[in-house]
Each structure stands twice: as structure tokens, then as C-alpha cells.
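Hey, resending since the last one bounced:
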Amino acid sequence: PAAARGAIRSLRGAFSERIGELARELVDLRALVEASLDFPDEEIDLIQRGDGEGRLARLRAKLEDVLSTSRQGSLLREGMHVVLAGRPNVGKSSLLNRLAGEDLAIVTEIPGTTRDAVRQSINLDGIPVHVIDTAGLRDSRDPVERLGIERTWTAIERADLVLMLLDATQGETTADREILEKLPSGLPRIQVLNKIDLLGQVPNRVGTGQLVTLRLSAKTGAGLDLLKQTLLESVGWQAGSGEGLFMARERHVQALAQVGRHLQRAAGSFDKLELFAEELRLAQAALGTITGEFTPDDLLGEIFSRFCIGK
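The C-alpha cells again:
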């Protein structure tokens, strides 16, 4: 339902309207800055005429709001890709089956049972979650298992989040630490200590952000709801936010994030007007991947329409 409402808002032009507003404010600020640089004799004072820093701050606040809403819509549209990773026999396939609610992956006591990736999509609070069970990570001479392990690392590189499973009865082993060190830096992960039923422990969660550790039992399902909640929180999903969303594409989210990075750098170079202007230009170029190209001639037209240049 939330995705449907977001799609309707997008069809009605909500996303285009918000992006258009950002583009207009960015053009206004660029025109003011470029006019100050290119026509210094015209006494166009950036601070007095337009409050450049204040305009930039307001622009960044609006961008952050649009970006946050776009990320939520992108999650509803495209979902997230979660990879189950870890040593053999830590319970990856059991956890996949528990999340899916059916026996999709073969579960045995024999290490290396899973040779190829097993994929299943589930629904969490309206968010499509594409879960991938992978071959256990270890050194192996079996050519088939080694191929499966290579595919595991490929899946991890493409993942939005990794569930790193450990055996709670063994704790974090040397092999676990080696796997953790190889995971891509910056990739969100949740460390899951499985098999707490063998220790008589209760589910719990420790930590926040990208340093979350969960204790659960894939066999009994204890802690599964806690895992689902943590999955949604880890990708920034805000429950109950569906009413104001629009269905942005992932490329739109990436473009808006790039705009944000340039505006952040612009805020740090306000006393160097040339650098400030360049960061604004790069921000406009990034936004142009959504709105269409905005050329130097377009900017000159805006300047001459706003200021009495040469009069």
C-alpha cells in the first residue's frame, strides 16, 4: 500500500515538483555568485544582495529532506539485497528458511552443503528484502565448493547489507575475524550469533548503526522479530513514513547524494568565491542528470535577467 501511494504521488508530479524547486534555488544562488565574479565593477555584493550563506543553508536543508524521502521511496520500489555470510555450519541456510517461512535451502550437519547461492524475496513492513544464502567461507580444495565461495564474495560486493553469522557456542573465532576483515569497508553489516538455543540464552541486541550484534536461534525462531526490525533500521527505513513518499529510482538517489556532497564542500569554501562557485556548478551538473543539462548560456541568461549589468 505504501508503494502504491508513493507511485501515485510520483505520477502526480510530486517528485518533479520538489526537484524543480531545488533546481530553481540552486540557479538563483549560482547566478548571484557568478555575477559577483564575472562583473565585479557592477558592485554586486553576494552577502548584501543575497545572503549567500543563508541561501546555501536553506538549500542544503531542502535537499536533505528530498534525499531522505527519495531513499525511503527507493527502498519501497527496489528493496534491499541482504547476503547471509559466514563459515560453514553456522546456520545461514536455517536462517534463510526461517525468514522465508519454508524449506528452501538444504540443511545438514555436513560442512559445505550449500554450494551455490539460494535467493528468496521476503516482505518486511512493505519493503522487498532479497535474501541470498551463500556457500560457507573457508579454504577448500573442492573445485565446486571453491566456485561457490567465489560467487559468495561477488554477492557480498553487490549487497546492500551483510548478515555475518557466527556460532554462539564457539564465539568469534579466528576464521570469523578473517572473514570480517575481508568484508568491503563501508558495507553495512549485522553480526548474528546463532544457536543460542544450545546455550539456553535469550535473544538480545547490542550496539547501534553499523556495529550491531544480535543473538538469536534460527532453529527455534527466537529473536527473528528483532532481526527483522534491525534489518529495516539498518537501511534507514522509517516506519509510518509512506504517506509522503514518492517512488524515486536508485539513480535519482545517487544523483541527489552527489549534489549533497558538492553543497557540503561549497559550505566549507565560502570565503574562496571561485571554489564556492565551482562546487555549485558541480552540484548543478549532478542535479542535471535528473532535470536535464543546464548550460553556461542558460546561466548567463539568468544573470542578465536578474541584474542590471552594464546599465
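The first strand starts at residue 80 and ends at 86.

Sorry for the duplicate.
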